[in-house]
Amino acid sequence: MAIAKAERLMNLALCLLGTRRPLSKRELRESIEAYLEAGSDDSFNRMFERDKDDLRELGLVIETVENLDGEVGYLARRDSNRLPPITLDAEEAAALGLAAKVWQQARLAGAASGALQKLRAAGLPEGVDPYEPHGALEPRIPVHEAAFEPLMLACRDRRPVTFDYRKASAAHPAPRHVEPWALECWRGHWYLAGWDRDRGAERVFRLSRITGKVRTRSGKYTVEVPDVVTVRETVAGWAGDITDRSALIRLRTGSGYPLRAKAASSRELGDGWDELEVPYGHGLDAWLVEFGPDVVVLEPAELRADVVDRLRAVAKG
User: Fold this and answer.
1) Mind listing the pLDDT tens digit for each residue in 124-148?
2) Strand residues in 187-272 grouped as ranges (E)
3) Cα(104)–Cα(92) distance, rounded to whole angstroms?
């Protein structure tokens, strides 16, 4: 559906830019196939008004002109919609070329390649090749998850989605109904931040735990989308990078080196065990479960209960 709308908007923009005189609604409807397929005049009028507003929001200057007979027509003059020449110095062009290099996977690779050709025309030096594999800086953003593209489109178009999601503590996936806000790459993993309608609260979902297809749904959002900075902080908190307290754990001697690296303090207990004080944030319970019998949570009690619940779910699965 997003592709069909994009095609319809493109056709309308081409019609308005390509005409030398204002075109009436009737003429536009006869020129664009999607409008011809509208079931009624009311459906066409609603569709046309939405499309016109969307194009204006995207920056297209559309003029409304009334002729001598009182008929209203529309056009987009080329001189009002022409961008000034874009010039880039070597550093700016190289930085944008490096950004294009990031997206060398999925459908974004074609767009990045096309953008790179335009950058060369705008001033990217021939000696700078952002796709050169031997550079000192090799940025990569993996997008292997099948859910990435439909969620990216849903975030862009502000469309609610449904998908099956398997929590780390659950043996089986469960359906989720979400108003997607933004996708964030955090420490090599993609996360979706959004509003979980079933739980009535903001939630963050790791894309690798989404199973099956992502399906879009009609209707408007029920909550306001926060700004990008707030979304980023939300993802960081759910990914466990924001901590406001400490947890006390026992760790088997000679194991759990990642935990030891993050520990604020540690001491030997004897009998093959050490005691560590580690930062406590969202997601610590899932991380501790990965160390299995080598870790025992001493406090706080809620963290110990969360770890036990996760271990029981794994045992059942």
Assistant:
1) 555 555 545 444 445 555 566 788 8
2) 189-196, 201-206, 210-216, 243-252, 265-270
3) 20
